[in-house]
Design a protein that fits this description.
By secondary structure, the chain is of the alpha/beta class. The chain is 13% helix and 32% strand. The chain has five helices and 21 strands. The strands form six sheets. Strands 1-7-8-6-4-5 form a six-stranded mixed sheet, with helices on one face. Strand 14 and strand 15 form a beta hairpin.
């Protein structure tokens, strides 16, 4: 079985990314490596790999002293490890002489100030070693501590370290960017990410912006990939045009109004979708096109490589009934038609 390194610059520079305003949309996206024989190949760790141990480079961030950088990393690891309904577990393995982006059997988080490193404006870079079945066997994170500075107090000098690490650890677990969120202007200033946007939103937070806890969209993502099969359910079906043509790259958004659970998924090339990791409840549903900055170009896997085939010209549509989600089961055959 062949293995390959997937190198994604998930966190782009703020000056480029914050120039766009988008309407609020929703859907977490797993990192779909390929799609063949009617099945999606989703990047994931085997359950036997948990807890996945990560080792940080010696000294971590030079901007932060007193062990506060280690505390921020451990907090981010614990947040992903504490999602109800998920088997995913991450643990801190201490500091070492590690290097990101090389195959050495170590899941490394390297803070680098190397002057020759070309990150093209990236805050962080993820490297995943994935085989043909989508199994992740190694993952590294490179933190650009040359172009960017970090803090742990939410100040306006630098970026919040825990926020940056929490988002990148989602990629380490196999999550792609999530379109749930929006950009907003305040007092005519540069656009920033709305506070209630998902941690995995494709635009990183700027100075003074904190995102240290997961939204329901983020929780559903990791619970869907690493489900323990007990406390959550799912909705599945197909999106087609009225003439029966499958719609690729459509948002299927579900909302439970009592507990304000907003989660979604993006359809595969055959129009199928599964919105997994859902808390039990009665959901309303809507399907809508992807929109910038959370469009197909911001996603990885098949959504990026087949972006020319993504349908973004249909009209949004609602399902004219509720869908009941029961823990440990799937509400299947929930199909939607669009114009």
């Amino acid at each position: 079985m062949n293995a390959r390194i997937l190198n994604r610059r998930f966190s782009l520079g703020l000056l480029i990314a914050l120039c766009v305003i988008a309407a609020p949309v929703s859907a977490y996206v797993p990192l779909t490596v390929s799609f063949s024989d009617g099945e999606a190949v989703i990047a994931h760790w085997r359950d036997s790999a948990f807890p996945v141990t990560v080792v940080a480079s010696e000294g971590l961030s030079p901007d932060i002293g007193g062990g506060r950088d280690v505390e921020a990393l451990q907090s981010a690891l614990n947040t992903w490890s504490s999602v109800d309904g998920s088997n995913a577990r991450l643990r801190y393995g201490g500091e070492g002489d590690v290097q990101a982006g090389i195959i050495d059997g170590i899941n490394a988080i390297e803070f680098t100030t190397a002057p020759g490193l070309d990150l093209s404006g990236a805050i962080t870079v993820s490297y995943l070693l994935i085989d043909d079945d989508g199994v992740i066997s190694e993952a590294d994170i490179l933190v650009n501590n040359r172009r960017y500075t970090f803090n742990t107090d939410g100040g306006n000098v630098g970026l919040d370290l825990e926020t940056a690490l929490l988002r990148e650890l989602g990629h380490l677990l196999g999550l792609d960017s999530s379109p749930i969120g929006e950009m907003e202007f305040s007092g005519g200033q540069q656009a920033t990410v709305a506070d209630d946007s998902a941690v995995m939103y494709p635009v990183p937070r700027g100075p003074t912006q904190l995102a240290r806890s997961l939204t329901e969209d983020d929780k559903a993502a990791v619970a869907a990939i690493y489900s323990n099969g007990s406390s959550r359910g799912s909705i599945s079906g197909r999106v087609t045009t009225q003439s029966g043509i499958p719609v690729f790259g459509a948002h299927v958004v579900v909302f439970e109004p009592v507990d304000q659970v907003l989660v979604g998924a993006v359809t595969l090339p055959d129009g199928t979708y599964t919105v997994g990791g859902l808390p039990p409840g009665r959901y309303v549903m809507r399907v809508e096109p992807l929109e910038s900055p959370a469009d197909a170009s911001s996603l990885g896997g098949i959504y990026s490589t087949l972006s020319d085939l993504v349908n973004s010209s249909f009209r949004p549509a609602f399902l004219e009934r509720y869908v009941d989600v029961v823990a440990g089961s799937e509400a299947g055959g929930v199909n939607l038609e669009v114009q």
